[in-house]
Write a structure and sequence with these properties.
Layout (H helix, E strand, L loop, with lengths): L7 H20 L5 H8 L3 H29 L1 H20 L4 H19 L1 H9 L4 H15 L3 H14 L2 H12 L2 H8 L17 H9 L2 H30 L4 H26 L4 H21 L4 H13 L4 H13 L4 H30 L3 H21 L13
Helix pairs in contact: 1-5, 1-6, 1-7, 1-8, 1-10, 2-3, 3-4, 3-5, 3-17, 4-5, 4-9, 4-10, 5-6, 6-7, 6-16, 6-17, 7-13, 7-16, 8-9, 12-13, 12-14, 12-17, 12-18, 13-15, 13-16, 14-15, 14-16, 14-18, 16-17, 17-18
């Protein structure tokens, strides 16, 4: 870490702040579900569809946001994302029905996340640091970014308690304006010289074709789909599962808090580990371990102790994938189009997130339990993890990593 250029420090801090703000405000939207549905007289499903739209919009927009940032610069892209985030929250605060919620909390915030959240922060943090420190730095930025709910949730909840849910949404809209100075400072990375991709400078179309013809990348992106499926299944359905099992509803909130706390530790660890061992091998081990832990937890009757132990392990394995995916993309393709190519993988993740949230609900409605849902998630996770491990095994002379 000593060899990080001094000029990179404010860029990294700003990238972490943007990630923390974007993630924190997004994850705080769940606080609005009950007051919004009661006030507007809409169904819970209407609100959750808006969140599903947000995840799909985020995933679809991520490659395009990455391409724009690579072509025109991170500063204008992230500034536009910050303004879009504020517009989405402002529209949400004024909503009188389902359409405005879907447009504000759904579509606009989804697009804004593509320009401000993990994909953009990881790409910014990759550029100004030397190759030897990159993985550790990405883990640190990811860990700091996961603390966002500690800022956003108390602001939103405090304003809702003192006034109403619209005041909470306006408070988040004002908080989102802090994305603008963060984006401006993080945008200093645009002045950092970027080595050409392997084979020289390429267009976005050429880089995209190279990514979709790269077998290890396709396997990594496919496994990332399963990652999103498992994680969003948990965040969406774990509290409901615990309630069905007769446990205190507050245990679900506590478990999600434990996941967030251990996520910081896991991001730091896997950022460090990715600088020492194969990133794709570590990804495969994460997916296999997650799946085995899921099978253990759901195969036995849950208790407060088993739930908190489960949450701690899953939290440790949660966002450690982010620095590993980012670092692996740089090793495969270089820095020039990293944000766009990383966006393709993230689009797969978000499709998995949508499937995990919606599929879990459909299975429960059809069968009256989550048994088939968690069994399918475990089977898919073991398969994806095994394929990821096999893909990480070198075949023949090891290829020289792209210039960093």
């Amino acid at each position: 870490m000593r060899n990080i250029p001094r000029a990179a420090i404010p860029i990294l801090i700003a990238a972490a702040l943007a990630l923390a703000l974007a993630n924190g405000m997004r994850q705080s939207l769940g606080l609005f579900l009950q007051p919004v549905t009661r006030d507007l007289g809409i169904a819970v499903a209407d609100f959750t569809i808006a969140i599903a739209i947000q995840n799909l919009a985020w995933g679809i927009a991520q490659p395009f946001a990455g391409a724009v940032a690579s072509r025109f610069g991170f500063r204008p892209t992230m500034l536009a994302g910050g303004l879009t985030y504020a517009a989405g929250l402002a529209l949400f605060a004024q909503a009188q029905g389902t359409f405005a919620i879907m447009m504000g909390a759904g579509l606009l915030i989804g697009i804004a996340l593509a320009a401000t959240a993990s994909g953009m922060a990881m790409a910014v943090a990759s550029r100004p640091v030397p190759n030897a420190a990159r993985s550790t730095v990405l883990g640190l930025v990811s860990a700091l970014g996961s603390t966002g709910p500690l800022m956003a949730a108390p602001i939103a909840q405090g304003l809702m308690d003192a006034f109403d849910w619209r005041a909470g949404a306006i408070g988040l809209a004002l908080l989102s304006l802090c994305l603008l100075p963060a984006a401006w400072i993080a945008g200093r990375v645009d002045a950092t010289p970027v080595p050409p991709s392997r084979g020289g400078d390429t267009s976005a179309a050429v880089a995209a074709r190279a990514a979709f013809r790269n077998g290890p990348f396709l396997i990594m992106a496919g496994a990332y789909f399963v990652c999103g499926l498992q994680l969003v299944f948990l965040t969406t359905h774990l509290p409901s599962y615990l309630t069905i099992c007769g446990l205190d509803p507050m245990l679900g909130a506590t478990a999600l808090g434990v996941i967030a706390a251990f996520n910081v530790v896991g991001s730091l660890f896997f950022g460090w580990a990715g600088g020492r061992w194969s990133k794709t091998l570590l990804l495969g081990l994460i997916y296999v371990t997650r799946s085995l832990v899921l099978a253990w937890y759901f195969a036995i009757p849950p208790s407060p102790t088993s739930t908190l132990v489960f949450a701690a392990i899953m939290g440790f394995l949660w966002l450690g994938v982010a620095p590993l995916i980012s670092g692996a993309v740089v090793e495969m393709f270089g820095l020039q189009w990293q944000a766009m190519i990383q966006g393709f993988a993230f689009a797969s993740h978000q499709l998995g997130s949508f499937t995990g949230a919606l599929g879990g609900g459909l299975i429960f409605d059809a069968m009256g339990s989550y048994t088939l849902a968690w069994q399918a998630g475990v089977a898919m996770g073991l398969t994806a993890g095994t394929l990821q491990i096999l893909a990480s095994i070198p075949r023949g002379p090891r290829a020289r990593p792209a210039a960093a």
